[in-house]
UniProtKB/TrEMBL annotation:
It comes from Arcticibacter svalbardensis MN12-7. Its EC number is 4.1.1.20. One of its GO terms (biological process) is lysine biosynthetic process via diaminopimelate. The modification N6-(pyridoxal phosphate)lysine is found at residue 48. This is Diaminopimelate decarboxylase.
Length: 386
């Protein structure tokens, strides 16, 4: 929950806005770093989850690398201080300009998603007189048992190189002059809470790794992606994801040769809980069957509920539930002209009134970064406490 001082800060500001608890962010980063260090694992922060500059600087300060998915993310990572030899670049559709930008900045590695892309990177690297390090993103066909829209490692998904294309990749890598195979890369999905799926991933990584090693490739890195989920239902009880349990699975089930590095790309688990979307109730509409709270924040500020029916815990910060409120059920909606602009149906929350502050929790990952200007909405000014 929020301290009195933080609440006082909220009350002086124009809503809606994103609030970041940088102290919680640092505690989370430190927990992740300690757990990873125990096994000698390296973590690159998946910048797509949140590219707020202060958040990025904190993360960089803890020595994480950066996992980028656009030329602009690569440039931003380097700009805020991530050493370029700790920057990796993934994505199914890297443009020529983006590839050249990354080559010029001497990033560590490209996570390559097709044989066609290997050829383009090789040609562009030749053009600028460089040799690019690449990792092959391979589609492991492992089900992550998460929301359909955020599953990435099944054959029906657009991501990664299919296993039947590996001989063509190996053949090309053997003759390409301007690329160098650094390792293999996987990512099976996001918001994964059933950790046993990572065991299935390890089994598949071991098989594919062996396939390459039998063909004479020496893989320096095994990159197993991100995906560790967070508890959207209990943000106060489970503020920090269970990094130890997550890394322990890979430590136990991944075959590593001495000197072989294991890389991770965590996004959500690092930044989700430290962010909250703060908004105010504009109108309370009482219907016969339903009551609505109309907020000044909508799907333009936080798209996840409209896009994936994602749950975010909501709280009325202006009233004290225990002392003065009876619990009501409201459909909590935004002001946008779309029926899907709804943060939750039949949400149990204390009786609320115009002007009350409503916190939409666990919004630090895939929140502000996915916002849009639809309906010509205002750009938000974030608020921080250290
Ligand atoms: N690596 C790759 C290749 C990825 O595609 C992703 C996320 C990550 C790492 C980071 O995954 P994380 O640790 O955050 O789960 N907008 C959706 C999530 C999309 C995730 C896309 N890829 C949401 O709001 O739930």
């Amino acid at each position: 929950m929020f301290s009195k001082e933080t609440l006082a800060g909220f009350n002086t500001r124009k809503t809606p806005f994103y609030y970041y608890d940088l102290k919680l962010l640092k505690e989370t980063l430190s927990a992740c770093k300690d757990a990873a260090n125990e096994y000698g694992f390296q973590v690159h922060y998946a910048m797509k989850a949140n590219f707020n500059e202060r958040v990025l600087k904190c993360i960089q300060g803890f020595g994480f690398g950066a996992d980028c998915v656009s030329g602009n993310e690569v440039k931003k990572a380097v700009e805020v201080g991530f050493p370029s030899n700790q920057v990796v670049f993934a994505g199914v559709g890297k443009s020529d300009d983006e590839i050249i930008t990354a080559l010029e900045l001497n990033i560590y590695c490209f996570n390559v998603e097709s044989v066609q892309e290997l050829e383009i990177i090789n040609d562009l690297a030749a053009g600028v007189g460089k040799r690019a390090r690449v990792a092959l993103r391979i589609n492991p066909n492992v089900d992550a048992y998460t929301h359909h829209n955020i599953t990435t490692g099944l054959e029906e998904n657009k991501f990664g190189i299919n296993q039947w294309e590996l001989p063509a990749c190996a053949e090309y890598l053997n003759r390409a002059q301007n690329i160098w195979l650094e390792g293999i890369h996987f990512h099976i999905g996001s918001q994964i809470t059933n950790l046993t799926v990572f065991k299935s991933l390890c089994v598949r990584v071991n098989e594919i790794k062996l396939w390459f090693e039998e063909r004479g490739f020496n893989l320096k890195i095994l990159n197993v992606g991100g995906g560790l989920g967070v508890d959207y239902y209990h943000p106060d009880e489970n503020k920090i994801a269970d990094f130890k349990a997550y890394f322990e699975i890979f430590n136990q089930f991944l075959d590593r040769k001495p000197g072989q590095e294991v890389h991770f790309e965590l996004g959500r688990a690092l930044v989700a809980h430290c962010g909250t979307l703060i908004s105010r109730v504009l109108y309370v509409k009482n219907g016969i069957k339903k009551h609505f709270l109309v907020l000044d924040a909508g799907m333009t500020e936080l798209m996840r509920p409209a896009l994936y029916q994602a749950y975010h815990k909501m709280e009325n910060l202006s009233r004290n539930v225990e002392l003065e409120q009876s619990i009501m059920k409201y459909d909590i909606v935004g002001p946008i002209c779309e029926s899907t602009d709804c943060f939750g149906k039949e949400v149990e929350i204390g009786t609320s009134f115009r002007g009350d502050l409503i916190a939409i929790r666990t919004a630090g990952a895939y929140g502000d970064v996915m916002s849009s200007r639809y309906n010509l909405r205002e750009q938000l000014e974030p608020y921080y406490t250290e």
